[in-house]
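Weekly modeling sync, notes
Attendees: AB, CL, MP (scribe)

Item 1: holo prediction request
CL wants a bound-state model with calcium ion before deciding which constructs to order. AB pointed out that an apo prediction alone won't tell us much about the pocket. Agreed to run with the ligand included and paste results into these notes for async review.

Input as submitted:
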Amino acid sequence: MLRLIFLLSMICLLAGPALAQTSSLLITEYLEGSGNNKALEIFNGTEDVINLGSYTIERYSNGSTTSVSIPLDAVDLDSGEAWVIANPQSEPALLAVANQTHSELNFNGNDALVLLFAGSQAVDSFGRVGEDPGDYWSCSEGNTQNHTLRRLSSICSGDTVIDDEFDPCLEYSFFPIDVFTGLGVHFADCGAVGADHTTWGTLKANYR
Ligand SMILES: [Ca+2]
Ligand SMILES: [Ca+2]
């Protein structure tokens, strides 16, 4: 009986850390498609509802160190939900999964993007501000032009250093051009439970 109580209390203790969250909003998908097909997915993996009205996407084109500001709509984004912003000239299939459009959401592979809070605090970024990499940033799995890039589920905090080296392979997986299927839903695997206590089975085995 004591073991059962101990077991149940252990499960209660594990319930908190098992639901560990991302540290901020994250850019979880980047779509640089054909024509004007452009989109970003912003994911709220925190435990709180976040109003997007305090956030902008800053676009730094072609190595520029000054940005064009794209305000996100002032809507509440629930914990676990994703927001898709697209270029209004995108094709209908992409617009169908967009929550918001903005004409300045326009990039072609060599433009850095920063998710900014309250006009000054970088909470995430894509690319390297101040660097013109040529046509795109690249790594062994692909590049940032004519691809859809999806944030790895293991990424739980934003890239807040906006001007250091950018290796997209470290935090993204690559999909072919015009893949829209992942937009609007993201999964972040940010559990913080010790590896030997992650399942019911191993928990039971340890205290049998
Ligand atoms: Ca460009
Ligand atoms: Ca960086």
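Recorded for review: Residues 125, 159, 161-162, 164, 166 surround calcium ion (ligand 2) (CB under 6 Å).
Action items: CL to compare against the apo run; MP to circulate these notes.
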